Every structure is written in structure tokens, then in C-alpha cells.
Amino acid sequence: MSDKAHLLKVIDNARPELSTLVEHVLYLPKLCPATLNPKAGSTLTLRYAAGAKLLELFSLDTYIDAFVGDQVVRDMELFVQTVAADAAALLGHEVTAYADVQFNRLRQGQKITVVAGRI
Fold first, then answer.
1. Each residue of 8-26: pLDDT tens digit?
2. Which of 22, 35, 45, 112 could form an S-S bond across to 98 if both were Cys, CB 3.0 to 4.6 Å?
3. Which Gene3D superfamilies match (predicted)?
């Protein structure tokens, strides 16, 4: 788990007996202070089948914000891999992370899919 994983929290699922698919769509902040990337409108979606626990919304925002200006997690691929792995470790089951990223000063975007926690 990353050094920021402790910021993620879970809540109890009030109805764990119901088959529930959860998607958190996060609008990404500018993670790099130098390039101001990713560009506004870039998203990261975390998708998982709900079990006994759910990711807590406010801590998820705090966790993502903690990556702003990070000196280790500097590229989008590692960022998405790290978030997926931390969420899967906390929930104890598979999490899929989808990033749809646009960049400043480039004529391209990037789509990244990471599946973490697969047994």
C-alpha cells in the first residue's frame, strides 16, 4: 500500500446482501504543479462490487488531493495503479480503476485501466 493509503476510509454497507455495483467518478485535480496536468475534466472512476464495506466519499477526495505535487507518483499510469491497489487492499477485493485523462501542452489524451486485487 502507498504512504497515502491511511487517508482512505470505509463505511459499512447497510445492505450487503444486495448485489450492488459501485462507481466513484472523481474529477481529478491538477496533480503536477509545473505542467498543471491533468487538464480540467479528466476523471478517474473506481468500480467495485460492494461487499461488507464501501469507500467513504470524503476520505476518497482527501486521498486523491494528497497526490498533488507528489514526488514519487508522478505519471498517470503509476497514479492509477496506486489508487486501484490501495482501494483493493482496503476493501479486500477487486477494484477496477479507469482514467480518462487530457493533458495541457499535448494534442492527446490517455485512457488507463487497472484491475487490482484479483485473486
1. 999 999 999 999 999 999 9
2. 45
3. 3.30.1130.10
